[in-house]
Amino acid sequence: MTIVVVLEQVPDVVEELSLAPLGTDLARDAVSYVLNEYDDHALEEALLLAEGSGDDVVAVGIDTTGELDQVLYTALAKGAKRAIKLAGDFEGTWVGTRAAARLLVPIIRELSPRLVLTGVQAPDDLDGQLAPTLAALLDWPHASVVIGTELADGAVRARKELWGGLTMHLELALPAVLGIQAARQTPRYVPVGRVRQVMREATIETREVEMVADGSPRVERLRLPEETAQAEFLSGSPADIADRLIELLRARGLL
Amino acid sequence: MAHGIAVLVEHLEGQVTDVTYELLGLARRIADTDGAEVVACLLGHGVRHVAERLPADRVVLVEDHALHYLAPEATARTFAALLRGERPWLALVPNTAIGMDVAAWVAAALDWSLVAYCQAFDRRDGRWVATAQLFGGKVLADVPLGSDPVVVSALAGAFAADAVEPGPPGTIETQEPPAELATLRTCSVRLERPEVADIDITRAEKIVAVGRGIESKDNLELAEQLAEALGAVLAASRPLVDAGWLPRSRQVGKSGLKVKPKLYLALGISGAPEHLEGMKDAELIVAVNKDPKAPIFTVADYGVVADLFDVAEALLERLEG
Amino acid sequence: MEPKLEKVAEVWEKETAVVEGVDISGPWNRMFGQRVIWDYTPELIEKIAQLPGGESFAWCYQCGKCVPVCPVDVVGDYGPRKLYRRAQSGIDLLDSPDLWLCTTCANCLRVCPKQVDMVQIMPAAREHAMLSGRTIPAELQQALEYTAKYGNPLGQPARKREAWVKDAGVPVPILHQIQRPVEWLWWVECYPSYHPRGIDASIALARIFHALGLDFAILGREEKCAGDSQRLAGERGLFEMLAEENIRTLSKYEFAHIVVTDPHALNAFRKHYPKLGGHYDVWHYTTLLARELPRLQPLLTRSLPYRVTFHDPCYLGRHNGEYDAPRRLIQAIPGIEFVEMLRCRENSYCCGGGGGGMWLDSFAAGHQRRRLSEERVLEAVATGADTLVVCCPYEVSRFEDAAKSTGVDDRLRVRDIAELLAEAMGSSGEAAA
Ligand SMILES: Cc1cc2nc3c(=O)[nH]c(=O)nc-3n(C[C@H](O)[C@H](O)[C@H](O)COP(=O)(O)OP(=O)(O)OC[C@H]3O[C@@H](n4cnc5c(N)ncnc54)[C@H](O)[C@@H]3O)c2cc1C
Ligand code: SF4
Ligand code: SF4
Fold it and tell me: Which domains are assigned to chain A?
């Protein structure tokens, strides 16, 4: 049986982000891409599940960057059985979540997995998160913000994190879609030597796909929030400062 | 009404969450401009009494056992069915652990567009423009809304909480749950409370962190009290952990844990790079240090150059008093 | 694992015994059957010894010379002899915390009569542990992931690698900007490029190079971690990837020699890059400055009234034989009083940062009475010195932190030699006090 993990590369926010002249996209030349950190957790959780159940993990991704191979090879090196890349002419297009989901649905149906795992969110989703979107299109049950999973006769048990440490325990009939917030353990390390060996020995299956109408909202303008490089200093007596701080926390809903 | 604004009411165990009032306030502001109706969509089980506290033009109440904890599948299906009937122009959903599973599902199922992570909603040049956060707020996207129906999921804390007061709605209307609830594939749902014993600082929403400025183990009690009053957990820089004053599980930094809370209050921490590595991504950093040149101020949003004991005591007095 | 104890065979006398034509039959002719020479199982020793690089693990004959010189044993319970003995008694090094505690300082190798070489054994065993899917300490994993992603273990963007240059106060040419041959390519390395205290030393060094009129340039954002400590931590694949990229980058430029800030980079360039096709003439900056001393000396006009002691970096001293250059530089500074610590030069103590120790700090601390860096600053304080002088970029941050955690930060400052020299030059290269 199969568990599909959907992996996406996203711009690395460690680098300073800047905008393209038109103002509707990032200056992509200056962007470097990394695997969405939540997707890394989804992969880890899938591998942990599969180690217990004997399922095959299949890593699937849309190659919007031209650099997805690296991510897929790493997934194979970590223990995924297959890696499938959806390739197409995505140059200069921003593939929204809905469009991504529509591209993914046919391959997921073809693989007919019992579980689809993906990261709870990605820093570049403007039009919502992938897991619930896929669930709606596939008509499968779903849960996001998942921090623990377990397979149990025909169902998956998922722990969904709410707030203040409160968790919701759900049991979903299979097949199901989960948006993973954190795997049970830190995503494993795979030595570079192992990845390089996989790159020589394994293959990534490539499927050509056509960009679909995405139904995502039109971005008129991107902008960078005003710089707040330096701390704003609060002064006055301790009492004044305490008042200001409490006011600040209240305004942000933190009290 | 064709121009209605539907708001998904988020509640848990009979408590309406703050973000719901923020959304009802936002809906009110939009409705007042547009002359539209605000419809609060209250889905749940045994929640009729909650309706009395929802200041909307109309509350639509749908009750079913499956909606008890607003579990993803049942809530999404019910809300979608409700929107099909109501045909509002705008559906507002909180971008929270609960709302996230509803907004994207409903938008995809109805084929409406969706703007997630919305932090502002303004009228510009005769249109509504939703501003969404991308890359954790490092980039903002302005999205003008047309006349097609749209789901907007809004960040908690982004809109004023006091724009409306809890109070009774215009009317309360009960609707039957959709037939689909009989064939759900979510088999069971229950809630679990955290065990008090094990505190995981990486999951904490608020952290009070102390450094060597705290001077002695005895003074930790003050920090502990402050943390408690703020609803925060106590964490520390490494020297305190090395000294055995706090367990290793409370150490923030390169060789400790990485944290990303909504509030990080740093007391008497200099901000060595090894410490900053563990906390610089916190949403709001407030630093108290008596040295105005302490590097912690390079990552802080707010800085206080003062004796930490004075500030902590003044804060405590207000929070407890 | 069950120890395998074989039965001792009987003892008997041969009726006639003739050895090389001489009849030696008689009661003195006692013969033994094959005896047990293994009172415990050899498998776990073999397991390490069969790894390429791990061979010498099996050569240990338990003489024990290595234990007292092992810096980890001073604060804990360690040393090659002990690891060998533990393997004999059923403890698998690959699954033991011991795997991560050796700093590859090479002090044991210096005294071992059997050439048991932890500098080879440890990376081999660690690599094997990683390849066989064992979990590795989280701090180390993070540093390795950062290195793979960003080319430095601090997780800083590549573009910021040259950002310190604008604060140098003197021109620091960057090769991709100047596009001309230089005599000295200065390999700055990661901590000196990104860590605030490392940057202090880089700025000081830039000022010294400038004052000497050296024809130098740096690679800036094109430089990636030389990778030696990652290799020693077991990530050979990562090391090779970095080395290949660095060699490719270096091949674009013309330069006569490389000068490095970091002894770990020195070690990589001298001993491991050549195997991958990168052949360079590499100098540590102290060696270069000591050679330039006749020109540097007149510039050292300010007298510094400090009592200083010096910590030999393992990868400069024991690994690459340079003990004198740093001392000559320190003693060239007017006003300085120089004292040695008890453990110095060939027998120098270790700061704990080598061999991946830089990224195992809390892990190691959990298995030791105190950190190696803490042991060392206490030794420095015991000499009555007010300044601990270093010349490896790991050390400033390690020792400054250790001074804080042992509470001697009011008595002991930590300075890179470059910082002291710049201060003596009257250049405001002195770091924030
Ligand atoms: C390899 C390595 C890994 C490390 N990992 C970590 C890590 O994971 N986490 C970590 O925290 N550190 C780590 N460190 C240690 C780090 O370098 C610093 O030593 C440490 O963070 C300093 O802690 P501190 O800020 O509490 O102490 P200090 O640097 O001594 O700062 C104390 C601060 O308190 C202020 N202060 C004093 N009294 C008062 C008062 N009454 N009111 C207000 N302010 C006051 C002072 O001005 C000062 O700024 C690591 C170091 C190394 C070398
Ligand atoms: S010095 Fe060498 S031979 Fe002697 S105990 Fe140590 S490792 Fe073994
Ligand atoms: S290399 Fe150094 S740390 Fe490692 S065992 Fe030998 S003496 Fe000890």
Answer: 2-208 (3.40.50.620)
Task: Tell me the three-class secondary structure of B168-233, residue by residue.
Answer: CCCEEEEECCCHHHHHCCEEEEEEECCCCCCCCCCCCCEEEEECHHHCCHHHHHHHHHHHHHHCCE
If asked whether residues C279 and C169 sit together in one domain, one would say: yes
Chain A positions touching B148 (Cβ under 8 A) are: none
With a pLDDT cut of 70, the percent of chain B lying above it is: 98
Share of chain C above pLDDT 90, in %: 85
pLDDT band at B195 (very low <50, low <70, confident <90, very high): low
Residue B307 distance to chain C (closest CA, Å):
20
In whole angstroms, what is the distance from residue B60 CA to residue B175 CA? 7
Cβ B279 vs Cβ B285: under 8 Å: yes
B186 interfacial to chain A (CB closer than 8 Å): yes
- Residues in C touching A48 (Cβ below 8 Å): none
Indicate the residue among C276, C291, C306 that finishes a domain. Answer: C291
> Is residue C127, in this structure, part of any structural domain at all?
yes
For residues C181 and C323, membership in a common domain is answered with no
Same domain, C358 and C379: yes
Q: Are residues C19 and C50 in the same domain?
A: no
Kind and range of the H or E run holding C230 = helix C228-232
CATH of the domain at C340: 3.40.50.10700
Mean pLDDT of A195-205: 95
Question: Mean of the pLDDT values across residues A183-199?
Answer: 92
- Single out the residue in C112, C135, C158 at which a domain terminates: C135
Domains of chain B are: 5-183 (3.40.50.620), 201-320 (3.40.50.1220)
Summarize the confidence of residues C59-88 as an average pLDDT.
96
- Yes or no, beta carbons of B206 and A141 under 8 Å apart: no
pLDDT for A12 beyond 70? yes
Q: In 3D, which of B191, B210, B168, B185 has the Cα closest to residue B59?
A: B168
Q: Does C173 touch chain A (CB under 8 A)?
A: no
* Domains contained in chain C, number: 4
pLDDT band of residue B293 (cuts 50, 70, 90) is confident
| Of B16 and B277, the one with more pLDDT | B16
pLDDT digits (tens, 9 = 90+) for A104-146: 999 999 999 999 999 999 998 899 899 999 999 999 999 999 9
Which B-chain residues 232-291 have CB contacts (< 8 A) with chain A? 262-263, 284-287
pLDDT band, very low/low/confident/very high, at C12 (cuts 50, 70, 90): low
Both C109 and C88 in one domain: the answer is: yes
* C423 inside 8 A of chain B by CB: no
In the reported structure, the alpha carbon of residue B275 is separated from the centroid of ligand 1 by a whole-number distance in angstroms of: 7
Burial tier of C141 (Cβ tally within 10 Å: 0-12, 13-18, 19+): middle
Residues with CB under 6 A from ligand 2: C 60-66, 80-81, 111-114, 116
Inside any domain, residue C63:
yes
pTM: 0.83
> Which residues in chain A have Cβ-Cβ distances shorter than 8 Å to C150?
14
SS3 B159: coil
What's the rounded mean pLDDT across residues B61-65? 96
Residues C165, C287, single domain; the answer is yes
Contacts of B70 (CB under 8 A, 6+ apart): B10, B11, B12, B43, B44, B98, B102
Indicate whether C166 belongs to any domain: yes
Cα separation, C403 vs C410, in Å, equals 8
Per-residue pLDDT band for C433 (boundaries 50, 70, 90) equals: very low
Distance CA B51, CA B58 (A): 9
Supply the range of the domain harboring residue C56. Answer: 44-135
DSSP assignment, residue C268? I
Given a cut of 60, whether residue C14 has pLDDT beyond it is yes
Domain check: are C73 and C85 in the same one?
yes
Judge whether C431 lies within some domain.
Answer: no
pLDDT for C11 equals 60
Same domain, C391 and C322: yes
